[in-house]
Each structure stands twice: as C-alpha cells, then as structure tokens.
Amino acid sequence: MLALNVPTEVTQRVAEKGLDSLSEADRQWDSPISEIRTDNAAYRQFLQEIYSEFHENHGSSENFENFVLSQVLWDETMAAGIADFLQTQPDHQVVVLAGHIMYGYGIPSRVQRRLGEEFVQRSILLNPTEDAWREAAIADYFWTSPN
Predict the structure, then answer these.
(1) Within a domain: residue 40?
(2) Contact 138, 102 (CB under 8 A)
(3) Does residue 1 form part of some domain?
(4) Range of the domain at 63
(5) Structural domain count of the chain
(6) What are 32-64's pLDDT values in tens digits?
(7) Residues 41, 86, 10, 23: is their CA dihedral positive or negative?
C-alpha cells in the first residue's frame, strides 16, 4: 500500500493562497515546483466547470488559478509517488483508487509523462452516470454495481 495523498491542509492552503504560501515543512509533501504543470487546456476547462459549479460563478480568476494549482499539486504528488515506486519496483503492479482520472487528466497523464509513452495504464470509472456512458474517452473501462 502506498501513501499518495497530500495532507488536506496543504492543498487547502494552496487553494486559498497559492504555492508561495507553503512553508518548507509543507513542501516535503509536494512535487518540485518545476513539475507542477498547469498548461493542459482541456484539464483547465474541466476544472473550470467544477469550480464554476461549486462557486456558482462568484469566484475570482485568482481564486480559480489557486484552485487549479491545488488540484495539480495533488495530481503531481500522487503521480510522483506512483512513478517513483514503479521505477524502483518494476516487477510490481499498482492499483490506484482515486477520483483524479477522468479523460486521462490528473494522475494518469502525469504518471505517463514520468514513465514514458511505452508505460501501459488503464482507468476504470466506477458507477458512471448516464452521460458518462456516451463518452468513451472518459475512461478505459466502466464498472457498475447494483444500487
């Protein structure tokens, strides 16, 4: 079992005040700043929809940028933990239970960047909504369970 998550207080601090608000002690949990990539336009749009829905269009652009930074910090840190483990234990398989996988955004794309295009990973969306069934790109597989 791997501990991949960033402490909630760290991601909350970034969401409120940005990466510059992190102390040296906080930085033990995150990826190096050089690995925090926020340039995926499709992922930013995906996050914008979540942010707008949650804040009912009352959030500022600065707050949105910090929200993106906190999500990407979370994604990058989890991806680094997975990649680091697989690089030192190549004969192992890793199963990650997380919500940061749809459309290959978040964790999968960041693991792929670290391990290379030849690395094979698959995503499974648990109990997808009606709309998700229509979007093949949302995940490699769907897993449903009775209500």
Answers:
(1) yes
(2) yes
(3) no
(4) 8-143
(5) 1
(6) 777 788 889 999 998 998 888 877 655 556 789
(7) negative
